């Protein structure tokens, strides 16, 4: 099981919530947004923001008791883009989208960043929106205007949670809303709060061995029906 987590502001060293404390907009008037890198390009460890832990660290996802890795599609290794999320967004699992007819996945809004720079886990990059891809809509690319609407919808859903307009824990989801910066939030605490103080401090551990099969290449047959 992975003990590696990221939740510090790299400038100040302060523990923050990448979910709640990093603003969505870097420059709203110029439509520049902050993007959190969870999985850097060419890596395949499935890192993601933990929604239920205090201050929402970025850590490796676990499925059926095993650390998750994505398969490597030849000739690449891991993701072919920087993969991550927009902070201060939330896909509400109780709401059904009018076009996809699917409910939200209870996560911050996913982002594929296609700039030339390879990121690193926990990095905050400033980006502009080009479009949106609905995975349940046969990969159909949507335009920039539609993408912006989705971003604002998920930001408003996050605001409802963080400001206590809807509960942060139900039968469908369990979110930690502890943060340092949102004045209207019941989850705002200060660094002297026992919850903040109880967060495990940095500790350098010896890396665990990784199964060589994680680097295996997979191939798509030319006769595959895609």
UniProtKB/TrEMBL annotation:
Give GO terms: molecular function aspect only. inorganic diphosphate phosphatase activity; magnesium ion binding
One GO biological process term:
phosphate-containing compound metabolic process
Its EC number is: 3.6.1.1
Q: Does the keyword Metal-binding apply?
A: yes
* Cellular component per GO, a single term: cytoplasm
Please state which protein family the record places this protein in.
Belongs to the PPase family.
Protein name in UniProt: inorganic diphosphatase
Protein source organism:
Diversispora eburnea
């Amino acid at each position: 099981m992975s003990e590696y987590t990221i939740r510090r502001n790299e400038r100040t060293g302060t523990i923050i919530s990448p979910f709640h404390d990093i603003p969505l907009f870097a420059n709203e008037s110029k439509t520049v947004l902050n993007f959190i890198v969870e999985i850097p390009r060419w890596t395949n460890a499935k890192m993601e923001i933990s929604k239920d832990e205090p201050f929402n660290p970025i850590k490796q996802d676990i499925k059926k008791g095993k650390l998750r890795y994505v398969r490597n599609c030849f000739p690449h290794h891991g993701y072919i883009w920087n993969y991550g999320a927009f902070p201060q967004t939330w896909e509400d699992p109780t709401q059904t989208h009018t076009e996809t007819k699917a409910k939200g996945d209870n996560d911050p809004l996913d982002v594929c960043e296609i700039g030339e720079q390879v990121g690193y886990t926990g990095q905050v990059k400033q980006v502009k929106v080009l479009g949106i891809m609905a995975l349940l809509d046969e990969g159909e690319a949507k335009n920039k205007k539609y993408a912006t609407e989705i971003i604002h919808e998920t930001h408003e859903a996050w605001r409802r949670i963080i400001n206590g307009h809807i509960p942060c824990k139900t039968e469908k989801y369990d979110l930690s809303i502890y943060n340092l910066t949102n004045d209207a939030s019941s989850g705002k605490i200060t660094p002297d709060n026992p919850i903040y103080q109880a967060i495990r401090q940095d500790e350098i551990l010896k890396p665990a061995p990784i199964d060589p099969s994680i680097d295996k290449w997979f191939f798509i047959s030319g006769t595959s029906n895609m």
